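Quick one: examine the sequence and fold tokens given here and explain what the tokens say about the fold. Here goes:
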Amino acid sequence: MVRGGVMGKRPLRATTREALESTFRSSAEGLRAITRRVEGDGADLAQEACLKLVETAAREPIGAPTHLLFRLARNLVIDRLRNRTRTSRLFRSDEVAYDQHPCASADPERALLATERLRRALEVIDAMPSRRREAFLLHRIDGLSYLQIARAMGVSVKAVEKHLSAAMFELMQKMQAEEFDK
């Protein structure tokens, strides 16, 4: 069969808004099934997957939007679950250490060191470029999701990811550099 003048090749067509809306409507239940594994964040992840699909469709035609939507959602779920596992391991080890060695009273020297570290961290955050600082504070202090931050700042989720990554890198680098100075 000859299509579009080339044997065996289907012509690529632009992904229309109507096609995306149809994909979202027909895939809603499947999308919920994929994202419900992440308790508390399922709706955010589903929405983020939809947003990524729209952003991809704006850049290039998509041959199988439903397939891509499910793949994006699956990858977001995997990333979120990995992040939660990593975070729980970090905090669990601290909790075990405190349970094994309870502190009868606050150590003044430790309190002073913690206060100094906090002061230094705040200085580093204040010195960040304004958009980076805004994204960092919205995420770490206000607890907003990447999608919520993207909407509040009027940027893409990818831009939020870049701002937060740069903020964390800068904060870690400058805090570690100060510890070496001591």
Q: What stands out?
A: The beta strands are 2-3, 6-7. The first strand starts at residue 2 and ends at 3. The two ends are 75 Å apart (CA to CA). The longest helix spans residues 65-100.
